[in-house]
Amino acid sequence: MTNQSTIDKLIEMRLTAMSDAFIIQKDDPRMKDISFEDRFGMLVDIEYNNRKSNSLKRLIKNAGFDQSDASIIDINYTSGRKLNRELINRLATCEYITEHRNLFITGATGSGKTYMACAFGMEACKQRYKTKYVRLPDLLLELELARNEGAYKKVQAKYANPILLIIDEWLLLKPTETEQHDILELLHRRRKKSSTIFCSQYDPSGWYDQLGGDDSPLAEAILDRIKHDAYKINIVPTDPTNYRSMREVYGLDPAMSE
After folding, report:
1. Beta strand 231-237 with 81-82: parallel, antiparallel or unpaired?
2. What secondary structure letter does DSSP report for 181?
3. At CA 144, angle to CA 187 and CA 151, rounded to 5?
4. Residue 45, helix vs strand vs coil
5. Is the pLDDT of residue 190 over 90?
6. Cα separations (Å) of 186 from 44, 116, 190, 225?
7. pLDDT digits (tens, 9 = 90+) for 105-118
């Protein structure tokens, strides 16, 4: 068997990283002093690491993060916000996902909720959890269009199936009765088998009223699906009189996401 035949077969099996590494080994005289087992192990390691890297890139791309550069290690703890570093580091291990628990991230506009949520989402991708980010207004609009086009179940599954779902701008606007039905259906399907991060300007104590309060028969049912055992991060300034949003801190365009 010729080397070219081996290379062609590796490419046909889509072992392209292994193929490239084999060509490099073949042309490197230093490899003659290395045992077959070690050389073969090196080839396998290169292919394995390449596939893991590509898998992570696909997970991040498919997640559709609003801020794909978000990182736990880059969270600013000196920006005048009260942040529980111990809790954040604990959540970064994705323990809450294995427990099927939710996370509420609340705070004013520009407090960094979206960045933090995307940072947690990045950690979930690194641990190979299928993750999805969406703004609630976009989600509800997508479901409405899908209902009219006969693709409702498909779109519901798109957001029900990810192990981690990040819903940004949660209850920023009061949902209609139909939208509440959509929310309830989605959260019911995700209950006790996945985790959801909710980013909201409203404290959880105000969510009942945003859902219509006593006038809505679904308000309590929706909250019942998500509020038990949820972790909570409330981003507040250490000094409200001198508060600066994270957009100001980093000189970002005010029109950009949090």
Report:
1. antiparallel
2. H
3. 85
4. helix
5. yes
6. 42, 23, 6, 10
7. 999 999 999 999 99
Q: Which residues are bridge partners to 235 per DSSP?
A: 107
Whether 257 contacts 67, CB under 8 Å: yes
Q: Is there a contact between 116 and 105 (Cβ–Cβ < 8 Å)? A: yes
What are the tokens at 29?
């005289």
Measuring CA to CA, how many Å separate 155 from each of 49, 185, 218, 220, 224? 33, 12, 21, 24, 23
Separation between Cα atoms, residue 205 and residue 219, nearest integer Å: 12
Residue that the structure tokens 């009061």 belong to: 174
What the block records as the tokens of 36 is 């077959």
Whether the pTM exceeds 0.85: the reply is no
Residue with tokens 């993750």: 131
Give which of 114, 21, 121 is closest to 62, Cα–Cα: 121
User: pLDDT confidence of 257, banded at 50, 70, 90?
Assistant: very low
The two tokens of residue 235 are 């981003």
Question: Do 258 and 246 contact (CB within 8 A), yes or no?
Answer: yes
Per-residue pLDDT for 237 more than 80? yes
Is 64 in a helix, a strand, or coil?
A: coil
The span from the CA of 186 to the CA of 188, in Å, is 5
Identify the residue whose tokens are 């001198």: 242
Q: How far apart are CA 227 and CA 44, in angstroms?
A: 46
